[in-house]
Write a structure and sequence with these properties.
Layout (H helix, E strand, L loop, with lengths): L1 H6 L18 H5 L1 H20 L4 H24 L5 H17 L10 H5 L10 H22 L32 E3 L3 E3 L3 H23 L1 H16 L17 H32 L17 H26 L55 H9 L7 H4 L3 H35 L1
Antiparallel strand pairs: 1-2
């Protein structure tokens, strides 16, 4: 441990002889149990997104609930004066892991499109997509406030005279705790130049998610219109679920998934290191764990730990079962049941009796140029716009055939008709001349 501490002094607890900093509610916000539960939830979502499509919905909901809890804690405690600048910093770093590592609005970082092609969008666009969108937009808005005002005086600093009342700790924090540090591949001040970077990132996220949130109103209008139409026609049995389309081709979806698979893993590892280094840089040693100060037996830390760890273990078990005996895994409600394979044992299949995982699994091949039929005749600017904002695929201009294509078809049809007419008239003149000769 001493060798590792020398190599990475920011990752392990510091010498007990140095000063320590603490906040009144650090164990409730980001205690060891809370952080481990979140890390397990990240791992659960990553495995589901990249290897086990049947668990994507459950993992996404779990991560969204964790993120919603963090959002409520930051907003409520900031308004009540119960959040310090170090508390907000750690919670913002944890939020970033969810936004850029696990959550996906339309599932482009999941394997649904890799397995199903452009038709994989049918798994998204419902309540889960819009709830994740709202939470992500609110987190980005709070992040902008935090990096513009909270980190420079909007929140109470550790070791400052304002650390009284609900924020008072025993023993009091020394004045050295007032300076806030974070990690960006080095130890940097949180109120320094890195603050500008995070402000730009938050503004970009607000524009990105805010635009999606505004455009998503199209889905609400289309759903209400369809429900009203079905009600007037007394077609009670028909579903009002909307059918979205993506503008990406299968080749583009495949490349996107392969790249995001590794980028997401790298960012999740970086987010874990970011949180742990930040805690060590600011000497918040009381939440780093240990035999006497982990408080894992308390519900505030035990509950997130069990939720995250049980979900992670369950997903890993289902992944193992899907590799070993895929026919024994019950499909999700949205997937059609898979017929059980024949159990006839041939001579060449004797080894499968001892290792079912050696069996070949059915593979679906997709055309690299496969694309939704409504986007087939669209130019790449429109296709990519609809890929970012699939709600636009519900509009009439996207559902209709492009005018340019209509003109091409019309001109081509006119040319063919002119050729037929000229050929017919020529044949008529020939027959007439022959009849006159006779």
């Amino acid at each position: 441990m001493s060798i590792l501490s020398d190599l990475s002094p920011g990752l392990f607890p510091r010498d007990p002889g140095t000063f320590e900093c603490q906040t009144a509610r650090a164990p409730d916000y980001y205690g060891l149990g809370n952080r481990l539960g979140i890390y397990f939830a990240w791992g659960n979502a990553y495995i589901a997104n990249t290897m086990l499509a049947s668990e994507i919905a459950g993992a996404s909901d779990t991560n969204n609930i964790f993120l919603l809890v963090i959002l409520i804690a930051m907003i409520k405690c900031s308004s009540a004066g119960m959040l310090t600048h170090i508390d907000g910093l750690i919670l913002m770093h944890l939020s970033g892991g969810f936004l850029f590592g696990t959550l996906s609005m339309w599932g482009y970082r999941t394997r649904q499109y890799f397995d199903n092609g452009p038709q994989g969008i049918r798994f998204f666009g419902g309540f889960g997509t819009h709830s994740r969108l709202i939470v992500s937009c609110m987190i980005s808005s709070y992040g902008l406030w935090y990096w513009m005002y909270g980190v420079v005086g909007g929140l109470v600093h550790m070791g400052s005279p304002e650390e009284t009342g609900d924020l008072e700790v025993d023993p009091p924090n020394p004045p050295e705790c007032e300076t806030l540090y974070t990690f960006m591949f080095a130890k940097v001040r949180a109120d320094g130049g890195i603050r500008i970077f995070y402000i730009i990132m938050c503004i970009g996220c607000i524009i990105y998610y805010g635009t999606m949130l505004l455009i998503s109103s199209i889905a609400g209008w289309a759903r209400a219109t369809r429900m009203l139409s079905l009600f007037k026609q007394k077609r009670w049995a028909e579903s009002s679920r909307l059918k979205f389309a993506t503008g990406f081709k299968y080749r583009e979806l495949e490349v996107l998934f392969r790249w995001l698979r590794w980028l997401n893993l790298a960012f999740l590892i970086y987010s874990m290191l970011l949180v742990e280094f930040t805690l060590n840089f600011n000497h918040v040693n009381a939440v780093l764990g240990g035999p006497h100060n982990n408080e894992l037996h308390l519900p505030a830390q035990l509950l997130p730990l069990l939720i995250g760890s049980f979900g992670f273990v369950r997903t890993c078990y289902l992944l193992f079962e899907s590799w070993r005996s895929p026919e024994d895994i019950d499909p999700s409600l949205s997937a059609p049941p898979t017929p059980v394979a024949a159990r006839t044992m041939h001579t060449r299949d004797v080894l499968l009796l001892f290792s079912p995982a050696m069996a070949r699994r059915p593979t679906t091949f997709h055309d690299p140029d496969e694309i939704d039929k409504t986007a087939k005749q669209r130019g790449w600017p429109v296709r990519y716009l609809v890929a970012w904002l699939p709600w636009l695929s519900l509009l009439g201009f996207f559902q209709e055939r492009p005018a340019l294509e209509d003109r091409k078809r019309h001109s081509k049809g006119s040319e063919n008709s002119e050729r037929v007419d000229s050929k017919t008239s020529a044949e008529y003149r020939t027959r007439r001349s022959v009849s006159r000769g006779v």
